[in-house]
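Holo prediction — guanine.
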Amino acid sequence: MTARLLDGKTLAETIRGELAVEAERLFARTSVRPCLATILVGDDPASHVYIRNKRAACEKIGITSRHLPLAADVSAARLLTEIERLNADREVHGILVQLPLPEHLPTQAVLDAIDPRKDVDAFHPTNVGLLSQGRPRFLPCTPHGCVQLLHRNGIEIAGKHVVVVGRSDIVGKPLASMLIQKHSTVGPNAADATVTLCHSRTRDLTQLTRQADILIAAIGRPEFIRAAMVRPGAVVVDVGINRIDRGLVGDVAFDEVAEIASAITPVPGGVGPLTVTMLLANTLTAAREIIGEVA
Ligand code: GUN
């Protein structure tokens, strides 16, 4: 393998250490511990694991968590009532409804019901709009993780051609929105990119992906990005987590792409640990804002 490995696991530990210090300082000043409320509807095993990881990460850095498990057949009315209760609860600073929800539930209406000040996923239309206008309240967790991974590894984004493959509301769209901004709250040269957003109806995908200085795969298809789709020397970020017979793989055919990229994220151990870390950062930000602290 010739590419430099962009190690998300170690970086996540570093940033979590910084957040633990901030959480402790907040507690020393205000006697408030940030609190994240999680809601999980049904018993999808993968969602259970994600929630468990998120809650464990919270506890480790001095953020408390509260969990509300709901039956798979819960009514929309009951779910909305629970969200209203958490919105009104002064001890709760962040609310996360784990997706996907069962089909009978109106996902958009559920996300819209979360108080935007507690919307640590940054899925609420108000927060999507603020991000789009370049004045984010919260940065969306997975896109923010991608940008941190690049920035803290010394990879400049400004002026680069970034090709994002995948247009989901959780990753592709908000990531494009972050990267095209003039300024980034992440740091200097962490935005100002030229962005191409590709999707399932894109024509000549390979011709576009081969133009990328930075290629970001977020399509949810195992090993979809092959070596022939990557320009030699490009930086490749793999957001995918796909479970196949062989185990967990990303959206990038790692072994062959690592031979031609200059840097690449592994799966697991790349973007994943940073997604959870950015959720912790947002919960801390939410707590500060709700308490009325600015820094
Ligand atoms: N399911 C998969 N990714 C996410 C995420 O970032 N947030 C929530 N709430 N659910 C998810």
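READOUT: Residues 96-99, 121, 141-142, 170 surround guanine (CB under 6 Å).
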